[in-house]
Write a structure and sequence with these properties.
The protein is of the alpha/beta class. It has a single domain, classed as Ribonuclease Z/Hydroxyacylglutathione hydrolase-like (Metallo-beta-lactamase, Chain A). It is 25% helix and 28% strand. The chain contains 6 helices and 13 strands. Helix 5 runs antiparallel to helix 6. The radius of gyration is 16 Å and the shape is globular. The relative contact order is 0.14.
């Protein structure tokens, strides 16, 4: 079984294709001096492997203080309910996507695209507005509303080893009316992400981009493609 991918000494990829299950989007771990958070939950079928990766890194369930969801789509949220129960951590999500997860909407979450059913999951903290700060130990994570791919898409920002790490899971889209996508919002969100000048981008399906130039080139490519 593949091992977790080290991004910094505090940030790891612990799920996604090759690490958990093929249908899982990337799952990331942020660990600040005994205080931890997971970014996204995958579809749920590779959860045993995910929990094994956390154990390999020495993470105990009680250390995980948040399950930070970037948006409602099944490949990011299908495992959220089980993780919430097994880890005892609150689920955090933007209010504009939360209802789709809480009622198990198989169409807007694209669960039907996978021939699957999304089981409803409570959202313990609903984000609102453009920017919120979540404390993690004596550090913090910033949540940024980046609508477009979905109405309540969120990117998370953390500082680690002097670098700005951006968890921008589905920067690439896609845009689809069945997912309540909005092209104008999406392009505005890409511009907002570019302005962050992040050092590392942790994407949902296309891997980890290192260096300001590589991050900017990747984000900018979707603006230049006329998406």
């Amino acid at each position: 079984m593949a091992q977790p991918i080290t991004i910094t000494r505090e940030i790891f990829q612990v799920g996604g294709q090759g690490l958990t299950a093929p249908e899982d989007a990337a799952i990331y771990l942020i660990h600040f001096e005994g205080h931890a958070a997971l970014v996204d939950a995958g579809a749920g079928r590779g959860q045993k492997r995910l929990l094994g990766h956390l154990a390999t890194l020495g993470i105990r369930p009680e250390q995980i203080e948040y399950l930070l969801l970037t948006h409602c789509h099944y490949d990011h949220t299908g495992g959220a309910g089980d993780l919430r129960e097994k880890l005892g951590c609150p689920v955090v999500m933007h209010e504009l996507d939360a209802d789709f997860l809480e009622r198990g909407d198989n169409e807007v979450t694209a669960a039907s695209w996978y021939g699957a059913k999304l089981y409803p999951c409570p959202v313990d903290r609903r984000l609102s507005g453009e920017r919120e700060t979540l404390p993690l130990g004596n550090r913090s994570i910033t949540a940024l509303h980046i609508p477009g791919h979905s109405p309540g898409s969120v990117a998370y920002l953390a500082e680690s080893e002097g670098q700005t790490v951006l968890f921008g899971q589905d920067v690439h889209g896609p845009l689809d009316l069945r997912l309540r996508s909005n092209r104008a919002d999406y392009r505005a969100s890409l511009e907002r992400l570019l302005a962050l000048e992040a050092d590392i981008l942790c994407e949902g399906h296309y891997g980890i981009f290192r260096g300001k130039a590589a991050v900017a080139d990747y984000i900018r490519s979707f603006l230049e493609d006329g998406y």
